Amino acid sequence: MMRLGRNGPIVLLTGLILLVAVAMPALSGTSLEVSRYLANAIGQLAAFAVLAISLDLIWGYLGILSLGHGLFFAIGGYVFAMYLLKHSFVVTGTVPDFLQFMGWKDFPFYWAGFDFFPYAFTVAVLVTLLVSGIFGYVSFRSRVGGVYFAIITQALVYVAMLLMFRNDTGFGGNNGMTGFSVLFGWQMGTSGMITALAAGSLAVLALVLMLCRWLVGSRFGALMLATRDDEIRLQTLGYETLRLKLIVWCLSAVIAMVAGMLYVPQVGIINPRVLSPELSLEIAVWVAIGGRGHLVGAVIGALLVNAVKFWLSSAAPDIWPFILSGLIVLVVLVFPNGLMDLAKFRLTRPMGPKRMAEEIGEARP
Amino acid sequence: MSLTALLVDGLTVRFGSFRAIDDLSLAIDYGEVRAVIGPNGAGKTTLLDVISGITRPKQGRVLFDGALDLTQTSEAAIARAGLRRKFQKPSVFEGLTVRQHIAIGADFGFRSRLDTPALDDRICEVLETVGLTEHVTRLAGELSHGQKQWLEIGMVIASDPSVLMLDEPVAGLTDEETERTAKLVRALVRHDRAIIVVEHDMDFVERIADRVTVLHEGRTLFEGSMDKVRADAAVVDVYLGR
Amino acid sequence: MKLARLTAAAGLLAVLLFAPGLRADTLDRAGLVQELCGDAGAMGRAGTALVATAASGSAEDRAFAAPLARAVIDRKLGCDDAGAVLDEGGLDAITRMPRAAAGTPRSPLLSLKNRPVFELADAAFALRGAPAVAQRAAALKTLERRPAQIPEGLLDTAAAAESDAGLKEQIDTLAQTAALNASDPAARIRAIGRVAENPSRRALTRIAALESDPAYAANPEFRAAVDAATARIERGIALGDTLATLYNGLSFASILFMAAIGLAIIFGLMGVINLAQGELIMIGAYVTWLVQQGLRVAAPALLDWYLVLAIPVAFLATAAIGIALEALLLRHLYKRPLMSLLATWAVSLFLVNIVRVVFGTQNMQFETPFYVSGGVPVIGDFIFTWNRMFAIAFAIVTLALTWGVVRKTPLGLNIRAVTQNRDMAACIGIPTRRIDMMAFGFGSGLAGLAGLALSPIYSVNPQMGQNFIIDSFMVVVLGGVGTIAGTVLAALGIGQINVLIEPLWGAVAAKVIVLLMIIAFLQWRPEGLFAVKGRRK
Ligand SMILES: Nc1ncnc2c1ncn2[C@@H]1O[C@H](COP(=O)(O)OP(=O)(O)O)[C@@H](O)[C@H]1O
Ligand SMILES: [Mg+2]
């Protein structure tokens, strides 16, 4: 029933992602082998791209800006770190640093079972759904939206950061968790493992991209856009927009959680700084730069911004904040649809001419 | 099904200390087209807001079909019960196509209950009625003001509502477009449907309305046929005479 | 209770009446020397006289008697037929004229019973007369060993004359202990009453110790006095703690208010949350620092007044930044509040980093002028500190200023008009864009003032803005869009709740609970405390 729009760019991008995912392991051992550093960077970029998609889903397609998506990213990251530490402990007997630091003899009771990945994954999904579900329900029910929602989510992630900075929570506190040695029984840090993680992340990215593409192209996706454009109009046509928003919000949170899971084994550390409001704001910047409401845009935005950041943080770390703020101002003032304006091609549907200049679904609550 | 589609009973709506609707009571029957007229700020839109659940009254109730108290029902549930409304300010989804609008209007729920051929038929039928057949694949944001008005009407009639509310359906339309709208409204009359039209255009009202309610400062000033309205001194005083 | 007070008052009166009389008695110097050379009984009497002199003798008598006590202890007093000589024959003990001893002088030996009396007298003289603080402190140590023997009045006069603040406080403490342990029950009861007059945790420990005193079981009057004092002190402490909490909450609320009021005005007017507000606070603090440095160079005499002199500078500097921000950036983002959010974040990022590059990341050093240092102890352990008072007073002035501008000036009238209905305001000819700019400048200037008020209390560094911004969001969300009253109430509420919860579960828990409470509150009033429900369609 839907006009699908031009599918070209997204198919192209997915193909490219899968190609890289296949090529990296295939080329290992040949003269074209991807360096460990590059492979690791590609893997991390893929995790960020997944994170950007999760935000684009609710901001671009539902008009709800979350400035607290780092929270769900962190849930995935922390749970995966717990799995890695517990697993490493079971396999090699290494006692995690933070236990020694706190002078604890044993893992806290809630670490039980975390060496079994399916259990850890289930816990991560449930916690994400619980947090996003409760928060989303109370916010959407009282019609909190727009700027209000944005700053309350930011307060949420900030408070979570303060909480995780405490050392007595059993999640590593200030120093976080690091020293992962084994993943699914394999030694970490080897070239093979790095390539495998990167390829795996790319595969997940492609999967998430296709899933979201399918979702936004469905009747449900049309309803998402309708909610964004005029929520009350849609409600007075008989749709429970509260439920719709809640479903998309929770889905988005789970995708962000998965991104966190991909991220942690590749950087080898997690600490409360992933919960800093800055990271959550940066996600919004990736999406804005790439182009809100375009999945391809979100992916490209995340890849570009982070690639520049990786490169600069070794070359000239002091300049990066200035470049980032300059980029934001540029995008916000000159290219309201981000790179999509620059590229002058529309990947899904263009926003209506009026809506190009004016955001939707931002009416104050 | 009772004869009365909507029963408004002792309704009061306040914004701060201001009474936008003041102890208003009225009944609207199935099968009729009821025009609600009155000067700006009389409370017409507010009345429709209460009926569609967007504004909650301070006092009073609104019974649909003699049973469902709309003041206690959510917007979506009211719509699902068969009450649809076109807003005063054209409200369409700028990022969706004309076809998507009608598909959304024809059905509710996240997955369509109609199968594709049935839905296609319905969409064609509605687009035919509102005259937007050749714009089926265009985005709503690209339509003209009049086309948006019709698109919204199409969207709200697509589900065959039992109560249809139209808030200023011909505001800003050309004479010819007004004429077409009047025909459309009359064509929508059915014995099991009540139509409420809020409008300023007296000629239009005269063409479509079976009965007219004149609101003034949140109260009923007059109720009856259009001829009698024109003859009523009080109405002429506050409204028509100006 | 009442009786005890009456007795105490009567006793005090008696002391006041008779003390000058006692002092008027001049010392019988010759008699004293004679007794010093007498038998143990006579020496005992002489010792008591010395102690009395130390407590209430005239300055000359004390100067006369002090060397005698010392000499007896050191066995340097030589008794001979003509009386006695000091320093083994240097001076006559009575006239203090040089004279040689007649014959072989005998130096009297202190009995075991008399020695403490003389030591007491010696220490008492030293406490009142020794030139060095260390000597007086050593004398106090000696006295502390026998609190029960210290003559009444000695410590009070010594404390009154003491110039060293620390020692003075120690003397006062000892005076109380001495009085509490006096042998006369009436004196003890009076002392208990006096201790209870300044309730604090230390006073409570003191009085509580008396419950194991034998007199507590034996003497019902004593017991009643102790119990009454305990109750009174406990009430005082509770009151003091409550006041301290309220005071801390109030000062925190003042900071919150100042950080949030600019935010609230701008949000009400344009629907924009300025994420750079925290950085404007930071800039305000840095400007204050610059003013301080400028004064240090240009007018050191005025250095202490830098906090006051910086007020216009901080306001204008941040207002200018705000106006530039509005004119260059936000103006173009009209009706795109989420994009404005990102844009203001970019500005905040820029400001933090530019300050970091220019000034470094360390905390800035601020002078503490006299009007923000120290405080007045009020009751219990509550100290009314001036730096907090400065913040509170500053917030009140800011509130008055804001209220005045919004309610009494043409600009304020226009701000209110545009806040309520922008389109209508534009229709009747209000230059809405200019109002936006001015209001943005005003709101930013208020942030600058907040930074100034913060500088004597918090550490000033490039990151400081981030500590306030989230709390001030919460104030705006809770208070409602663009209302001064809402902002004040919300700041008070959040400030007090934070301070109340903090001692129970810690600062982080306080933040968590405040956030949860705000989310819960929004269930009930989504528009915040003060906002008329608007039409949603
Ligand atoms: N959300 C609101 N807050 C305050 N006043 C309102 C609100 N909605 C409507 N009003 C006032 O109620 C009165 C009735 O408005 P409305 O029902 O829109 O009149 P009309 O008959 O022109 O449709 C008007 O004076 C309007 O200003
Ligand atoms: Mg109206």
UniProtKB/TrEMBL annotation, chain A:
Main location: membrane
GO-annotated molecular function: branched-chain amino acid transmembrane transporter activity
Biological source species: Ancylobacter defluvii
Keywords (A to Z) from UniProt: Cell membrane, Membrane, Transmembrane, Transmembrane helix
Membrane spanning stretches: 38-59, 71-96, 116-140, 147-165, 193-216, 246-263, 283-307, 319-339
Subcellular location: Cell membrane
NCBIfam families hit by this protein: urea_trans_UrtC
Membrane topology label: Multi-pass membrane protein
Single GO cellular component term: plasma membrane
Cell membrane is among the record's keywords: yes
Pfam families, per the entry: BPD_transp_2 (PF02653)
Domain of life: Bacteria
Protein name according to UniProt: Urea ABC transporter permease subunit UrtC
InterPro entries xrefs: ABC_transp_permease, ABC_transptr_urea_perm_UrtC, LivM-like
UniProtKB/TrEMBL annotation, chain B:
Keywords: ATP-binding, Nucleotide-binding, Transport
Matches recorded under InterPro entries: AAA+_ATPase, ABC_AA/LPS_Transport, ABC_transporter-like_ATP-bd, ABC_transptr_urea_ATP-bd_UrtD, P-loop_NTPase
Listed name of the protein: ABC transporter ATP-binding protein
Gene3D superfamilies: P-loop containing nucleotide triphosphate hydrolases
GO molecular function, one term: ATP hydrolysis activity
GO cellular component entries: plasma membrane
Sequence ranges assigned to domain ABC transporter in this UniProt record: 6-242
SUPFAM superfamilies reported in the protein's UniProt record: P-loop containing nucleoside triphosphate hydrolases
From TrEMBL, chain C:
Membrane topology: Multi-pass membrane protein
UniProt family annotation: Belongs to the binding-protein-dependent transport system permease family. LivHM subfamily.
Subcellular localization, as worded in the UniProt entry: Cell membrane
Record's protein name: Branched-chain amino acid ABC transporter permease
DNA-binding listed as a keyword: no
A GO BP annotation: amino acid transport
Source organism per UniProt: Ancylobacter defluvii
Transmembrane segments: 252-273, 305-329, 341-359, 389-406, 439-460, 472-492, 504-524
Pfam families the record matches: BPD_transp_2
